[in-house]
Design a protein that fits this description.
Elements (H helix, E strand, L loop, with lengths): L2 E7 L3 E2 L4 E4 L5 H4 L2 H5 L3 E8 L6 E12 L1 H4 L8 E8 L8 E8 L2 E9 L6 E3 L6 E4 L12 E2 L5 E8 L6 H9 L17 E10 L10 E8 L1
Antiparallel strand pairs: 1-9, 1-14, 2-14, 3-4, 4-5, 5-13, 6-7, 6-14, 7-8, 8-10, 11-12, 12-13
Amino acid sequence: MKKFLIGSLSAIVLTAGVIYAADHIDAPAVTGTGNKSLGNDITDVYAFQSPADNTKMVFVLNTQGLMSPAVSGAAVFPSNTMYEINIDNTGDNVEDMVIQALVQNGKLRVYGPVAVGTPGTTSMVRTGGTFTEVAVTAYGAASPSIGTSSNGVKVFAGPRDDPFFFDLTRFKEIIAGTQTGFRNPGVDAFAGTNVMSIVVEVPKSTLGGASTINVWGETKTK
């Protein structure tokens, strides 16, 4: 097993319909320069019931925000980084289960959902259970690559249009006191930019049977 140390942490997300946390551009110690450093920078975490099948949950962890189309074509998931989706199903804000994703054998491999080993800022890769492997979809590909496993987990990995909408210009004007409210409709500051996205769909039966779960994402580096 490989040990990973914490590199970046998203805000906690409570799944009730669709609730999410956004954090575009972390501190320089996390983002650095180049794709290998930017791979640690979480932009958004989403958790929601599958609109196609109410027996399944979908988890999305997006990284490397504000990528232009030119940059998106060369973006990668770095091999020294683990992307971890933490799931608390007892209400104590401590992870009970994890979904772990990292590059192995030239593909993105996803382990879990699986019971956590030792909670906290270091993690061991939980290789004892079923894993799902997928080729990273290339920017501009005609159709996505979808990985599936025997326990019903499906995985996508690759660049996608940034789904977060925010009128940053008007926000700055409100903060400066030159405007009193947002425009309707607003002007999306993230239009035309992309993220590197990991999407995992799992049967609810793999999550421990809780009616409410807390979800948060981390990136951890060897």
